[in-house]
């Protein structure tokens, strides 16, 4: 009888620790959201590396369990997931991601046509708008600063800044930023068509001039000194971005460059996406603040896209006919590299199959990325 009683107690304890016993509707909501992310990654190929890892991370993070000191949850000190998540909360992953971006990006379009830098300023309007909206919605200044970077559509900078200013909002800010980056093919084309005419969409831009190897090597060095002397807090991001680009353009570290932009970047992206997804544990993630952040994100992202297009239209008022810019590259002022520039190309080719805009759009796209990192540094310097 004692044996049967002991067995019954153990069985009852086991059942109390199952996911079925600890299930809530919040867990179901987040699991369904994770499945939607996986669907978008596999079926639609929207940012597949990120959405696949974030989506599966959501499944991992929302398996219900009883917190009994087993150290299995991402918010439990000492757990494996918690240790991996420190790459997010301490800003290691964003810096390494920027290193990979630098090693994979050709800055020639920007070097050959510096006026494209002005279009990249569009992302900053989205950041300012998101910051103001967050303050208006009742967030603390530090929290508003972390939320603001969503407006630039730069998930990596958003993670870096929120980990410094509002660690409790990292998951919400990151998911919001990456979700809207993935939804660019749905959101931006509507705004682009709404704000441009058919005549503007078929504008063909001058081919960019050839850029010398010396210019390519000097750009990351000069870029680092100019941006980081102005905004030292952006050094962990921009320092790695420009170093990665120097590795690429120097031509003497080809094997290392390939490792950085493929193997290392891929591993870090997977770990970052998986742990961010796991951080959406329903009892921590499903709050009023999270839903407010998502609403702020979509509004600010649309503002940044619209301002970029309108800036190009304003520039064209002062340019000769042969130098006019196609307003469709204005959407690339956000930092979603290279997805936004691909959208510029895709829309343009629907109206003129021989119009190749991506090589022009990549310029403001790069500036949007750099600008978002600079904005993160400025906000960190102001608010920390």
Structure, explained:
The chain has one domain (90-383). The protein has helices at residues 2-16, 25-43, 48-61, 80-89, 92-104, 108-112, 122-136, 141-148, 155-165, 170-182, 184-195, 198-201, 213-230, 235-250, 254-278, 282-285, 288-316, 339-351, 358-383. The protein is elongated and about 95 Å long. The longest helix is centred in the last third of the chain and has 29 residues, at 288-316. It is built from 19 helices and no strands. Helix 5 (92-104) packs parallel to helix 14 (235-250) and helix 13 runs antiparallel to helix 14 (235-250). With 384 residues, the protein is mainly α. The relative contact order is 0.18.
Question: What topology does this entry show?
Answer:
Layout: H1 2-16, H2 25-43, H3 48-61, H4 80-89, H5 92-104, H6 108-112, H7 122-136, H8 141-148, H9 155-165, H10 170-182, H11 184-195, H12 198-201, H13 213-230, H14 235-250, H15 254-278, H16 282-285, H17 288-316, H18 339-351, H19 358-383
Helix pairs in contact: 2-3, 3-15, 4-15, 5-9, 5-14, 5-15, 7-8, 7-17, 7-19, 8-9, 8-19, 9-10, 9-19, 10-17, 11-17, 11-18, 13-14, 18-19
Total of domains: 1
State the major sheet. Answer: none
Helix coverage percent: over 70%
What series of H and E elements makes up the topology? HHHHHHHHHHHHHHHHHHH
- Low-confidence segments: none
Radius of gyration: 23 Å
Number of helices: 19
Summarize model confidence as the mean pLDDT.
89
Quick one: how many beta strands?
A: 0
Estimate what percentage of residues fall within beta strands. Answer: under 5%
Shape: elongated
Distance between the termini: 64 Å
- Which structural class should the secondary elements be placed in? mainly alpha
